[in-house]
Amino acid sequence: xxxxxxxxxxxxxxxxxxxxxxDFTMVVGQRTARIKKAxxxxxxxxxxxxxxxVRVWGPVIRKSDGAExxxxxxxxxxxxxIDGSAYSVLTPPEIVDIALANTPDWVPVISQTDYPxxxxxxxxx
Length: 125
Hints:
This protein is mainly beta and 125 residues long. Helices cover 7% and strands 45% of the residues. It is built from one helix and five strands. The mean pLDDT is 82.
């Protein structure tokens, strides 16, 4: 066996989650749901926290009487404008506003390395 080292890079992925309690109505697919919980997934890139996705959860509202049913939605959403958002359920702007008001308040400390940064990998610091 022969191994040749071409290039080395240090990849660090820093992420955090923020649980939110909400109460508003959202259309998910063909159903309307009362969203009661949202979990925001954050990624730390280029010196700041960015929203990667938001998981929303809540009971489906029955069309017949407007009451909450025993069925629930549990959907992964993406904020408009980020990679993959065109192919998924969009995060409601109300949740994005609440999330941005509750950005993680800690900053990761990452040790310097002698290895070069790979700009092709989004998680490379």
